[in-house]
Amino acid sequence: MKTPELEPSQPSNWSPNDATKNLRESSAKLYGIENWGLGYFFINDDGNLAVAPDKDPSRSIDLYRVVQKFSGTKQSIPTLLRFPQILDDRMSALHKAFNLAIRKFNYESHHIAVYPSKVNQKAGIVKRLVSSGGPHHYGLEVGSKAELAAALAMPLDQNALIVCNGYKDDLFFRAAVLSEKVGKKAIIVVEETEDIFTALRVGAALDVTPHLGIRVRLSSRGSGKWKESGGEFAKFGMSTPELVNTLRVLKQRGQTHTLKMLHFHIGSQITDIQKAKQAFKEAARVYAKVQKMGCTIEYLNVGGGLGVDYDGSRTASEFSTNYSLQEFANDVVYTISEVCANEDVIAPIIVTESGRAMVAHHSLLVTEVRKIITPGSEDLQIENTAKPKAEPVLELIDLARDINIENLHEYYHDAIQQRKDLDSLFELGYLGLEDKAQGEWLFWNICRRAACLSREMDQRSEEFEELDRLLSSKYVCNFSTFQSLPDSWAFNQLFPVLPIHRLDEIPTERGILCDITCDSDGVVDRFVDIRHTKESLELHDVRENEPYYLGFLLIGAYQETLGDLHNLFGVVTEASVTVDANGEAVTEEIAYGDSVRKVLECSDYDTEHLQKVIAKELSLRKARGVISENDERAMLDTFTQVLADYTYLA
After folding, report:
1. Where are the domains of the chain?
2. How far apart are CA 336 and CA 102, in angstroms?
3. Is 246 helix (H, G, I), strand (E, B) or coil?
4. How distant is the alpha carbon of residue 266 from its chain centre?
5. What separation, in Å, do the N-terminal and C-terminal C-alpha atoms of the chain show?
6. For tag attachment on the chain, is the N or C end more exposed, with fewer CB atoms within 10 Å?
7. What is the 3-state secondary structure (H, E, C) of 353-380?
8. What is the reported pLDDT for 200?
């Protein structure tokens, strides 16, 4: 077969693969993958989203292929995919950044980190972090007896810390004080002076000297959604007068040696580095003054707040951060070093409690589009309907036929007025249902035509931008925002969303995403964009008999912990995927999602009793001749299958 000649406009070295490559690059830019992905995500040669856990594309995981292996199996979609090797890489990046900063500024102490358990308490995550963080003396932060119990049983390095925050009762104090009996070093951070008395009393009763820390309430606050966590009116921490009073109490009792840590926290997801630097300076100054009052503190705990750039804009917006990990580490180390040098005090061991930045990237949710709802997409053939008599319908027919770029604004406005007249006539009883249906169908077709024509204009007005939003299709997806993306509906948190395949094709549609709960809040209608958030997402059409999968990324922090059972949609199936020595993807663990039986029992239903009730009712109805024996058996079998089934759509 003769090879066709190249078009004159094509370079001599052009190949069909170049067009596909350009489409992949366009998709990567469209969804901002390089902006928010930190090098962990890219589009491979097959047009699929791939994960590179150690940022090496040659050692990557094709998400679409992983999902295909699950497809059709028990409880397959939605699925939460974890990539434990990303946790390893985040651990390495954190300590590399601080080690570089310490060398750069000749800091006279060192840095250790603890993982705040509340960010994601899953045992596999905590164990993986503890394991990969062992050489760095990585520890844990806990805020409850349950989290403390888990931490005490973890194989922590002997120099690692367990930082105990939050409110505590006597048993909490007792367990923390006794932690050294199992080879752990727990720092009991107190929030008020009374806690000092309790800690010392419990320690004396056990003949163990407690390791204490004090959380101070700085004047400085963070930035972003959680800035209220810091400042003078924060929920936790001692004010300056309370701090001074507590130090006096320790001196009077001869217990200043028990005070090991000064701690502060100005809020999660700090977006503006200037706010953080202000807090570092204030805290370092407090540390120096406490040292000069005779308390030899070992640790200055700067808390959490290291943010994640969810939208990739690298700004101080609430979904981003205007700094890098290295800049954050540099500012922590430099600021503390400078203050300590000026105050002529010993530099403390720096402790950080970064959680979100450690785990956000390591997991994502894959779901399938089950239905598309598009305004006016009904298959209504005008010629097959009765000839309209209503004036608004006749006007809409003319508008649909004659609208063009020259009369666009006028005819679009006329169509809106005719739609209002149509609704008014129907409400007054002057319009039949068939005329109303035909009028609505015409109106939405005019709208689509207007939106298309408006894109040819030199200056597109805001009303057509709004029209685009109204015309966005609703992509109904097999998941629950309340279970898997609680921050999305509760705080309007942005997460990157994109198809995990067909990324070498042009997305021809725009849509918002709806879950399968019976709740209008179960919608994702704000999306990542480099400058502003988008109100609809570029998507593909859904082909018949071909699944269309979407991925919600960077959801590793808080989402699983905060998810709820709205509509009794339960925990989704989870799988951990790694890359082996040969560069092949390996599924290490699968934990199947909640069954209907499990979520019912979580809501205090006795499922065995439910089965007995159903069986009894069926038996009575069969005895009365209302149903047959086959009917009885069919219902019993079906009910049993329902209880055993995944809570999501099959």
Report:
1. 1-76+364-593, 84-354, 597-644
2. 11
3. helix
4. 21
5. 47
6. N
7. CCCHHHHHHHEEEEEEEEEEECCCCCCC
8. 96
Assign 237 a pLDDT band (cuts: 50, 70, 90): confident
Q: How would you classify residue 55: left for phi > 0, otherwise alpha for psi between -120 and 50, otherwise beta?
A: left
Three-class SS state of 575:
strand
Where does residue 649 rank: exposed (0-12), middle (13-18), buried (19+ CB within 10 A)? Answer: middle
User: If 0-12 CB within 10 Å is exposed, 13-18 middle and 19+ buried, where does residue 13 land?
Assistant: exposed
Q: How far is CA 271 from the centre of its chain?
A: 16
Rounded mean pLDDT, 345-361: 98
At which residue do the structure tokens 């709806």 appear? 514
Q: How far apart are CA 567 and CA 65, in angstroms?
A: 31
Provide the edge-to-edge strand list for the sheet that holds 49-51: 41-43, 49-51, 61-62
User: How far is C-alpha 499 from the geometric centre of its chain's CA atoms?
Assistant: 16
| Per-residue pLDDT at 7 | 37
Is the pLDDT assigned to residue 232 strictly greater than 60?
Answer: no
Which helix (H) or strand (E) is 159 found in, with range? none
Q: What is the CA radius of gyration of the chain?
A: 30
pLDDT of residue 236: 66
CA 11 to chain centre: 44
DSSP 8-state secondary structure symbol assigned to residue 568: G
Helices and strands (H, E) in the chain, number of each type: 22, 21
Determine the Cα–Cα distance for residues 132 and 417; give it in Å rounded to an integer.
Answer: 65
Helix (H) or strand (E) segment spanning residue 255: none
φ/ψ of residue 604, rounded to 5: 70, 20
- CATH class of the domain comprising 1-76+364-593: mainly beta
CATH topology of domain 84-354: TIM Barrel (3.20.20)
Angle formed by the axes of helices 84-104 and 325-343, to 10°? 40
pLDDT digits (tens, 9 = 90+) for 48-68: 999 999 999 999 999 999 999
Q: Each residue of 363-392: pLDDT tens digit?
A: 999 999 999 998 877 665 555 556 767 899
In this structure, the number of other CB atoms found within 10 A of the CB of residue 386 comes to 9
